[in-house]
Specification:
Arc Repressor Mutant, subunit A, globular, 3-stranded antiparallel beta sheet
């Protein structure tokens, strides 16, 4: 049996920083959106994804992949968004086996209204602490790690 390649102390400290970032950043973004817009970060990402897609519509399965959520979770979230009047669901006209989620006018307005506060939080939490070269490094690091995690590029970025 091959001996594990343990992390060096520097790698361990880097890994702990990454784990902290993965745990704390989504919580901080979620708190801002809940406080200022009454929606979760996940709900915002779903609606923002729809807002940037053609006709503000997308298959539920594609929307789940875009937001890194299961189809079941996506169904529950879209049901909540439907109750608010922000999203509508219907059969895919090109293939009735699929369901299409469409952002309504009110849903689009919700994204537009929530975006300034969300972008301000992203800027404050991610970009303001970094220099321009560090921002470019972070982008490159993100692409490299994402490529290792998803070499086929199935996760939309």
């Amino acid at each position: 049996m091959e001996e594990p390649r343990w992390l060096s102390e520097e790698e361990r400290q880097t890994w702990l920083a990454v784990v902290g970032l993965l745990v704390r950043l989504p919580s901080a973004l979620d708190a801002q959106l809940q406080r200022d817009a009454g929606i979760s970060n996940f709900e915002y990402q779903v609606m923002a994804g729809l807002s940037e897609s053609p006709d503000r519509s997308m298959r539920m399965s594609d929307l789940a992949a875009l937001s890194n959520g299961s189809l079941s979770r996506m169904s529950h979230v879209v049901k909540r968004l439907e109750r608010q009047g922000w999203v509508e669901r219907g059969p895919d006209p090109s293939d009735g086996r699929y369901t299409i989620a469409t952002l309504t006018h009110d849903g689009y307005q919700k994204v537009v209204d929530a975006a300034p506060g969300h972008v301000a939080a992203v800027r404050r939490l991610v970009f303001d602490p970094l220099t321009k070269p560090q921002t470019r490094q972070l982008r490159e690091i993100g692409h490299r790690v994402l490529n290792a995690v998803d070499p086929d590029g199935t996760c939309p970025s």
